[in-house]
């Protein structure tokens, strides 16, 4: 699996208004168990909304792929409270070649299930425009 070097620039600490202090950083290869535990702790509904399919847990191949991103083309960020993941977000380029500004792309594009109102509301709050998608999902786009 060929990946580019782990970026150190995005590491920082964040203190939330209600008290918890989080460490924000890119995903690392040694995060396999934390990623597995994070997904396993999600509700069935949350796993379905995140992966757009029913999953009991991540396969070894999925864990390897998610914890070894190619940082030249994609980014996986984690938020930790202590040693536990409390959030994971990622972007990767689409095959269209136009979707993260620092990598020379012109837009961020996401696919969200129509019934996932929380994520659609967050996307709207972050400036994403919603468009009808295929197969019961909504495509959200934010120009960079």
Task: Summarize this structure as a short list of keywords or feature phrases.
2 domains; alpha+beta; 144 residues; globular; three-stranded antiparallel β-sheet; Aminopeptidase
Please describe what this structure looks like.
By secondary structure, the chain is an alpha+beta fold. The protein folds into two domains: 92 residues, Aminopeptidase (3-Layer(aba) Sandwich); 51 residues, no CATH class. Helix content is 24%, strand content 30%. A hairpin with a 5-residue loop joins strand 1 and strand 2. The longest helix has 10 residues. The model has no long low-confidence stretch (mean pLDDT 87).
What amount of the residues lies in strands? 25-35%
Structural class: alpha+beta
Q: Give the name of the CATH architecture of the largest domain.
A: 3-Layer(aba) Sandwich
Number of helices: 4
Largest sheet: 4 strands, antiparallel
As residue ranges, the low-confidence spans are none
Q: Spell out the CATH superfamily of the largest domain.
A: Gcn5-related N-acetyltransferase (GNAT)
Count of folded domains: 2
**Mean pLDDT value:** 87
CATH class of the largest domain: Alpha Beta
Rg over C-alpha atoms, rounded to the nearest angstrom: 16 Å
Run of helices and strands: EEHHHEEEHEE
- Measured distance between first and last alpha carbons: 30 Å
Question: Reading side by side through the largest sheet, how are the strands ordered?
Answer: 1-2-3-4
Question: How many β-strand stretches?
Answer: 7
Looking at the structure, what is the overall shape? globular
CATH topology-level fold name of the largest domain: Aminopeptidase
Q: Helix share of residues?
A: 10-25%
């Amino acid at each position: 699996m060929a990946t580019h070097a782990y970026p150190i620039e995005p590491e920082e600490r964040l203190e939330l208004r209600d008290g918890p202090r989080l460490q924000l950083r890119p995903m690392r290869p040694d995060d396999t168990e934390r990623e597995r535990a994070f997904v396993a702790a999600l509700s069935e509904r949350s796993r379905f909304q995140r992966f757009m399919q029913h999953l009991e847990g991540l396969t070894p191949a999925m864990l390897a792929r998610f914890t070894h991103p190619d940082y030249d083309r994609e980014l996986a960020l984690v938020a930790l409270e202590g040693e536990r993941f409390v959030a994971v977000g990622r972007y990767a380029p689409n095959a269209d070649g136009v979707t993260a500004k620092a990598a020379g792309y012109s837009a961020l594009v996401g696919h969200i299930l129509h019934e996932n109102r929380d994520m659609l509301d967050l996307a709207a709050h972050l400036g994403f425009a919603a468009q009808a998608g295929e197969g019961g999902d909504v495509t959200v786009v934010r120009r960079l």
